[in-house]
């Protein structure tokens, strides 16, 4: 369906992102761990490599650090 084919009415208003997000449920999934914002200095070439892998590079950095932690125990 093309955007111009969508009709916005009082009965069918435009989608509100907050409304959609509030309706999402995480049943049966593990709770999301809280993240702690930090300032971290890394070599530019290392950061460039992670960023070159595409969106989600911070999550991947966290996964690499977690794997290192787990391998060190």
Topology:
Blueprint: H1 17-22, H2 44-52, H3 57-71
Compact overview of the structure:
The chain is mainly alpha-helical and 73 residues long. It has helices spanning 17-22, 44-52, 57-71.
Word description of this protein:
- The protein has 73 residues and is mainly alpha-helical.
- It has one domain.
- The protein is built from three helices and no strands.
- The longest helix has 15 residues, at 57-71.
- The radius of gyration is 20 Å and the shape is elongated.
- The model has no long low-confidence stretch (mean pLDDT 86).
Features:
73 residues, mainly alpha, 3 helices
Content-based structural category = mainly alpha
> What is the number of independent domains?
1
Radius of gyration from the CA trace? 20 Å
Average pLDDT for all residues: 86
Low-confidence stretches: none
- Got a strand count? 0
Q: Which overall shape is indicated by the principal axes computed on the Cα atoms?
A: elongated
Helix content: 40-55%
* Main sheet properties: none
Query: What's the helix count?
Result: 3
């Amino acid at each position: 369906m093309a955007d111009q084919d969508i009709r916005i009415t009082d009965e069918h208003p435009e989608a509100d992102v907050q409304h959609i997000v509030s309706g999402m449920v995480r049943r049966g999934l593990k709770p999301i761990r809280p993240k702690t914002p930090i300032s971290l200095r890394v070599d530019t070439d290392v950061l460039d490599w992670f960023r070159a892998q595409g969106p989600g590079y911070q999550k991947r950095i966290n996964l690499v650090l977690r794997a290192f932690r787990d391998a060190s125990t």
